Amino acid sequence: MRKNYRHSQETKEKIRKSATGRILSEETKRKISVANLGRLAWNKGTKRWWNSPSDFQPGQNKGENHPRWKGGNSREYKTGYYSKEYRGWRMSVFLRDNFTCRNCGVKNCYLTAHHIKSFAHFPVLRFDLNNGLTLCEKCHSETDNYGGRARNVYKLNGANSVEIPTTISG
Length: 170
Description:
The protein is mostly helical and 170 residues long. The protein has a two-stranded antiparallel sheet with strand order 1-2. The chain has a domain at 81-157. It has helices at residues 9-19, 26-36, 76-80, 84-96, 137-141, 149-157; strands at residues 111-115, 132-136. It starts with 8 loop residues before the first helix and ends in a 13-residue tail after the last helix. It contains 6 helices and 2 strands.
């Protein structure tokens, strides 16, 4: 029977370094394999989250049961972009402007239906045809209320006194 020796950290490090990169012969690999027969894997019998008898049940944190549930209210402006009404408004703006950027006149590029008065801050004007412009992506990125710029203006000027861009800068 083999004795159980306790080695110091220094000795363990020496053994590790001497064994690193060593190529084992087929006979040595076979002996190691035979010596390990019958041993259980280190993780045999450990609990896993999907089959543990804990309080967790799949689907228990969905919908009303989720800790951050707020009554099923999603952000209204976010759902508006995916509505049929928005898609219809967008297509109407493109058709009115003949699928041409109103700022630079480009036709064959990615076009955006731009809200002159912000979609988020002016919900009454979201689907008003007069509140839309067809712009190419470059011209759209140069507008005063692109990508949250209107939000910053909105915070600075107050809720009722937002300056709305009437022309496209560029």
